[in-house]
Amino acid sequence: MEKGLRYRSRLILLFIILSYRPPLLIANQPGAEEKDLVIIGGGVAGYVAAIKAGQEGLKVTCIEKRGRLGGTCLNVGCIPSKSLLNNSHLYHQILHDSKPRGIEVGDVQLNLQAMMKAKDTSVTGLTKGIEYLFKKNGVEYIKGTGSFASEHEIKVQLNDGGETSVVGKNILIATGSESTPFPGLEFDEKRVVTSTGALSLEKVPEKLIVIGGGIIGLEMGSVWSRLGAKVTVVEFLDQIGGPGMDSQIAKEAQKVLKKQGIEFKLGTKVVSGENTGDNVKLQVDSAKGGKPESLEADVVLVAIGRRPYTAGLGLENIGLELDERGRVVIDSEYRTKASHIRCIGDCTFGPMLAHKAEEEAVAAVEYIKKGYGHVNYGVIPSVMYTYPEVAWVGQNEQELKSQNIPYKVGTFPFSANSRAKTNLDTEGFVKMIADPETDRLLGCHIIGPNAGEMIAEATLALEYGASTEDIARTCHAHPTLAEAFKEAAMATYSKAIHF
Ligand SMILES: Cc1cc2nc3c(=O)[nH]c(=O)nc-3n(C[C@H](O)[C@H](O)[C@H](O)COP(=O)(O)OP(=O)(O)OC[C@H]3O[C@@H](n4cnc5c(N)ncnc54)[C@H](O)[C@@H]3O)c2cc1C
Ligand SMILES: *[C@@H]1O[C@H](CO)[C@@H](O)[C@H](O)[C@H]1NC(C)=O
């Protein structure tokens, strides 16, 4: 009896020894093991797909060259910008908005280094968190640059030297995007900066010019304006916030930001620029035939948009197409013309947003695993994290007007909302747009405190095809800012109570 047991445990030990193979060896031998899915890029698109694939039981490898997971969003995008926005707002509020609240503060000092450190702590914690989730879900993580050797084989230039290759039944391209450069102004990330440089300036510039009045430009402009820079935003179009932002909301946002000290030059084109080493000079031209003007700043942030990034991927080796804007061409199931190679996130079509990339990641893995998936592109919220925030989902008024689609509008100002009044924070309003016949919600646009959180309710309503009466008859807790949302719905199908 005892002997038998010992014999069996020896057998088990032998089995363990025999079945042990160092995992790296497998990855190093081309073709040694075919993965179900190989992902190029460990940004939001890539890392979410990797985790989802692991959860679905697929053998999955994720290749990332940055040395850290999370891509643009976690490392130099959404997360660090929100850290600086939050803390610069607090600083600004202590300086300018504490007295009326009955708080007398003494000598307030900015410690920019410590503020940057707080940002880095958030970023590091989050990227490490993804590494943990990779381990938990059995995702193999290779630090290196991937490129197509053939339709199924990815060659990887490892970050710490050397080379390996991975073979995948399915391949997912998730290589993201990069800042679009301004012709003639080279990025040195000190005086002429992308958003990445603007997230790490060593001191507060005296004068900052932001080229481009989109979301990224206005967020970074807000940060440095609050910390003491004189900020000028030069925008080619006649409206800030980009084309998705409702024009009425955009006007209000501009008014509020102007009151905070940001100067705007709309309908103005930057013709040329020169980095002298001491400062940057820009020639600008008013689109409406005004006089050309010369502007000067210590730092210029170029925020004219982002473009897909596929350099060095070797797409030409396998004959994959890009469109005229550099986006990888895909069908509605994210397939390139080689049907086992899919592409999602910033490097293909659609809004360049982290949560859009995340939805596509889940859907792409579902297509691979189950043959079906879905993303509702009509219901993707946008948020500008300035103060107050601007958030929207669905269609805006100018879009509906230009398409001759009939609509009705209801609005409600935060100045009539009890919670906003108690918080001494009453700027902005909620605007709802609905179908005049069916009352179905078509779009919701908010400028105001917490707009970015509040838009989730509108997003859910839109996803479920709610009418504004459905929203208005849903009980909302009192006193909350969300009551403004309910009242705007009331104003759309009937009349608001408190306004
Ligand atoms: C300043 C700023 C603020 C932003 N704020 C927000 C926000 O608040 N909310 C929001 O939704 N979006 C925001 N965005 C946009 C958001 O960051 C992107 O939409 C998101 O990161 C896209 O994810 P992705 O995975 O497609 O691309 P990325 O995040 O760019 O990831 C791609 C990754 O692929 C890697 N890679 C590229 N080529 C290779 C290769 N050949 N081999 C290996 N690895 C490779 C890159 O190193 C990168 O890490 C912001 C962007 C910026 C710049
Ligand atoms: C900043 O973060 C704090 C702590 O979570 C939060 O209470 C506050 O509302 C945030 N401020 C802004 C402007 O988002």
From TrEMBL:
NCBIfam families registered for this protein in UniProt = lipoamide_DH (TIGR01350)
Residues annotated as binding FAD are: 82, 146, 175-177, 346, 352-355
Q: Which one of the record's GO molecular function terms can you name?
A: flavin adenine dinucleotide binding
Q: Which cysteines are joined by disulfide bonds?
A: 73-78
The family annotation for this protein states: Belongs to the class-I pyridine nucleotide-disulfide oxidoreductase family.
- The coding gene here is DLD1
Any one GO cellular component localisation term in the record:
oxoglutarate dehydrogenase complex
Q: Where is the active site?
A: 478
Domain FAD/NAD(P)-binding residue range list: 35-361
The organism of origin for this protein: Daldinia eschscholtzii
Q: In the Enzyme Commission scheme, what number(s) does this protein have?
A: 1.8.1.4
List ligand-binding residues for NAD(+).
Answer: 212-219, 235, 305
Q: What is this protein's name?
A: Dihydrolipoyl dehydrogenase
Which terms does the UniProt entry file under GO BP?
2-oxoglutarate metabolic process; cellular respiration
Q: Which UniProt keywords apply?
A: Disulfide bond, FAD, Flavoprotein, NAD, Nucleotide-binding, Oxidoreductase, Redox-active center, Signal
